[in-house]
UniProtKB/TrEMBL annotation:
Role description: May be involved in both secretory and endocytic intracellular trafficking in the endosomal/prevacuolar compartments.
Lineage: Eukaryota, Viridiplantae, Streptophyta, Embryophyta, Tracheophyta
Protein name: PRA1 family protein
Main location: membrane
UniProt subcellular location: Endomembrane system
UniProt keyword terms in alphabetical order: Membrane, Transmembrane, Transmembrane helix
Membrane topology, as annotated: Multi-pass membrane protein
Cellular-component GO terms for this entry: endoplasmic reticulum; Golgi apparatus
Family: Belongs to the PRA1 family.
Length: 90
C-alpha cells in the first residue's frame, strides 16, 4: 500500500513543518493563533490519513505480524534435547 506510506510520511512532514514555522514565526507569543494552526493541522492530518487508508494498512501490518508470531510459537520446539546420561557407559 504505497499511498498509505506516502500519507503517513506526509503527515509527519506536515507536523514537522508546523513545528519549524511555529518556532520561526514566534507563535509562542500568540497562543490563539497557535491553537488555530494546531487545530487546522490536526484536521488536515485526520483527513489525509483517512483518505489514504492508513488505518487499514496498519491493521494489515499488525495482522500479518501477529500471524507470523503465532506460527513461530506453534512450530517452535520447547522441549529440551535429551542429554546422554553420565552414568556407566559400555
Amino acid at each position: 500500500m504505497p499511498l498509505a506510506l506516502v500519507g503517513l510520511i506526509s503527515s509527519l512532514a506536515l507536523w514537522d513543518i508546523f513545528r519549524f514555522c511555529s518556532e520561526r514565526w514566534g507563535l509562542d507569543c500568540y497562543p490563539m493563533a497557535r491553537q488555530i494552526l494546531v487545530l487546522t493541522a490536526q484536521c488536515a492530518t485526520a483527513i489525509l490519513l483517512i483518505f489514504l487508508n492508513v488505518q487499514m494498512a496498519l491493521f494489515c501490518a499488525l495482522s500479518v505480524s501477529y500471524s507470523v508470531m503465532i506460527l513461530h510459537a506453534a512450530f517452535r520446539k520447547l522441549t529440551p534435547v535429551k542429554q546422554p546420561s553420565r552414568g556407566r557407559q559400555k
